[in-house]
Amino acid sequence: MESAELLSVSNVSLSFGGVKAISDISFNIMKGEVRALIGPNGAGKTSLLNVINGFYHPQEGQISYRGKTRKRMKPYQAASSGIARTFQNVALFKGMSTLDNIMSGRSLKMRSGLFWQMINVGPARNEEIQHRKVVENIIDFLEIAHIRKQPVGKLPYGLQKRVELGRAMAMEPELLLLDEPMAGMNLEEKEDMSRFIIDLNNEFGTTIALIEHDMGVVMDLADRVVVLDYGRKIADGTPTEVQANQAVIDAYLGVAH
Amino acid sequence: MLYREAGQFKTSYAADQAMLPIRQDRIALVLLLVVAFLGVPVLGSDFFLSSIMIPFLVFALAAVGLNILTGYAGQLSLGTGAFMGVGAYSCYKLATYFPDTNIIVLVLASGVFSALIGVAFGLPSLRIKGLYLAITTLAAQFFLEWCFIRIEWLYNYNDSGAIEVPQRMLFNIAVTGPHATPTTRYLVILSIVAIMTLVAANVLRGRIGRSWMMIRDMDIAAELMGIRPLRSKLSAFAFSSYYCGVAGALMVFFWLGSAEVEAFDINHSFLILFMVIIGGMGSLTGCFMGAAFIWVLPVIIRAIPPFFGLDMLAATTEHISNIIIGSLIIFFLIVEPHGLARLWQIAKEKLRTWPFPYASS
Predict the structure, then answer these.
(1) Given B12, B17, B221, which is nearest A91 (Cβ)?
(2) Distance from CA of A107 to the nearest CA of B (A)
(3) Are A150 and A177 within 8 A, CB to CB?
(4) To the nearest whole angstrom, how far is the Cα of B335 from the nearest Cα of chain A?
(5) Cβ distance B168 to B177 under 8 Å?
(6) Which one-letter DSSP state was computed for residue B253?
(7) Residue B270 falls within a domain, yes or no?
(8) What span, in angstroms and rounded, lies between the C-alpha atoms of B219 and B176?
(9) Confidence band of B2 (pLDDT split at 50, 70, 90)
(10) Which helix (DSSP H) or strand (DSSP E) does residue A8 occupy?
(11) CA distance B296 to B56
(12) Cis peptide upstream of residue A156 (ω within 30 degrees of 0)
């Protein structure tokens, strides 16, 4: 594993009115690692991803990505700097086919102008075919060739999650944020999804930050784990370290008062 | 039975991404174009051309425009009539200032003005969605109507307040004005509508069209894919208003001959919205089906009693036709809320698997 720091979050606090969602959190993500974010419900995990994504702007603290400190940033700017994301409740484009959904991940890489698109020859057509090849590779990788032309709204949940991963992959991100990629899946689907995440990390070198509630999955996949509780960081370290941490055990099992 | 795609294998992505990947569809389209370009002008009477086909095409083009905005980009608009008006009045002014320029160029240029106005009134869409946005576009409708009445410059200070189409020639044939024959006007409109529909189809299946659909289906995820909502929504407004503007210019120059502000009132906005809803949101074929349903069907219904020699008051036939159309709209929306285009698509799917309905395609 390379040891360069890809993203670092320092002293970030975020509140909505009087509610503190995140208070004073610092952690970093190394290039090429699988970083897990865990914690009980409402701990602020998704809010943290939203901060990294540029959906929320933290009141305090700063985020630096690839060594550069970021100012207020819009989600599309985060996208063009190489951060992709999947959502907890699938956020696919329901009216479009699997193919179009994954093609939409290539939007930023397409350049051809309006004129060529209008007549659909030359650059526009070549570009479409060239990106289709990349998308077909992703479809092969995720084993979803049979649903290529189907509208995603009608697909079963497990496949929708897979298409969403494909859409994020199509962006060829440097940092991929996965918000509960295995929520609501059965064992087999979880195994498939884990396999895709491991392959993605190993073969494409994509850095991954994932939120997950299945501890077995987290302990197997993650290189390092951050544990949040009530918007604070309570532990940070390798899976074994975190498992042995008393604060983590207390957060999950409760403490006697 | 004849509609089978068995044996039609695609060996390249280019072939798979063709607009009509099924051979029968391509043949049907060619036949349709042959009938439209040759059959209709030769066989159709002047009444058929000028009262049915020409308005049908004008409304279909306006419906394509609104469908781009509402069906593909998901932004509801009630200002279609006014945007058509912008096209018509700009075309009229352009024709006044550039009397020697080819009228087709002027018609296509007038859409640019309507696109600009569309972008201006599309700005609220960045903050407002759905029905609330529809209400802000209603403001566009009323404000522009007011302009068409109050700004006398727009109709060259005519006492009547109407714009009257001057005669223009193309290859020494009158294409607009009182001397233009319905056949010429029909052929000009048909060519423009056919080409513009093809262009719309191309744009819609490319990067730009996809970005509109992304915004429509899930704007948050679209933004994360790098789509800028500002650019995407406003380009949809521009594109859509361009189409509506050209439709408006065609309506006055090639169909009505002269028009007052009533030709662009809110009723027309609703009429075109109904065409889009009945035809099918997010379908270009649906625009034509919707326009045919809302415009052509009443004409046919009204022609039925005289055809059988029944002596009926004009008002009575009008009412009967309203009743029939109204009930058909309710019927179709209950059977298939996604419009006629969807029914057509389902019929095709059924045909593809007939007689083995459980076989998956």
Answers:
(1) B221
(2) 6
(3) no
(4) 19
(5) yes
(6) I
(7) yes
(8) 44
(9) low
(10) strand A5-16
(11) 7
(12) no
Residue B55: per-residue pLDDT? 93
- Show the domain range for B292: 46-353
pLDDT greater than 50 at residue B260: yes
Asked if the model's pLDDT at residue B180 lies above 90, the reply is no
Question: What's the token pair of residue A122?
Answer: 């030359």
Cα dihedral sign for B165, B169, B109, B61? positive
**CATH number of the domain where residue B187 is located:** 1.10.3470
Instruction: Find out whether B106 and B253 touch, Cβ atoms under 8 Å.
Output: no
**Residue among A109, A12, A2, A4 at smallest CA distance from A70:** A12
Q: Assess whether pLDDT exceeds 90 at residue B111.
A: yes
Amino acid at B307: F
Asked if the Cβ–Cβ distance from B217 to A94 is below 8 Å, we say yes
Q: What's the total number of domains in chain B?
A: 1
A119 touches chain B (CB under 8 A): yes
Mean pLDDT, all residues of chain A = 88
Residue B361 lies in a domain: no
Predicted confidence (pLDDT) per residue in B193-215, tens digit: 999 999 999 999 888 999 999 99
* Cα separation values, B153 from B25, B168, B263, Å: 49, 22, 18
Q: Which residue on chain A is closest to B15 by alpha carbon?
A: A129
B228:A76 CB<8 A:
yes
Cα atoms found within 13 Å of the Cα of residue B136, Cβ hemisphere only: 17
Residues B149-171: tens digit of each pLDDT: 888 888 878 878 788 877 777 77
Q: Do B13 and A108 touch (CB under 8 A)?
A: no
**Bond preceding residue B355 cis, omega within 30 of 0:** yes
Residue (of B51, B36, B59, B49) closest to B290 by Cα position: B59
Domains of chain A, with CATH numbers? 28-82+173-257 (3.40.50.300), 91-172 (no CATH)
Q: Is residue B18 part of a domain?
A: no
Q: What is the 3-state secondary structure (H, E, C) of A146-160?
A: HHCCCEHHHCCHHHH
> Could you give the strand order of the β-sheet that contains A175-179, starting from the edge strand earlier in sequence?
A83-86, A175-179, A207-211, A34-38, A224-229, A232-237
The single residue listed with the structure tokens 């009412």 is: B319
How far is Cα B184 from Cα B188, in angstroms, rounded to an integer?
6
What's the one-letter identity of residue B55? Answer: P
Whether B66 is covered by a domain: the verdict is: yes
What are the CA-CA distances from residue B172 to residues A12, A22, B180 (Å)?
Answer: 74, 75, 11
Helix, strand, coil percent values for chain A (each to nearest 5):
40, 25, 35
d(CA B117, CA B358): 51
- Rounded Cα distance between A81 and B357, Å, is 48
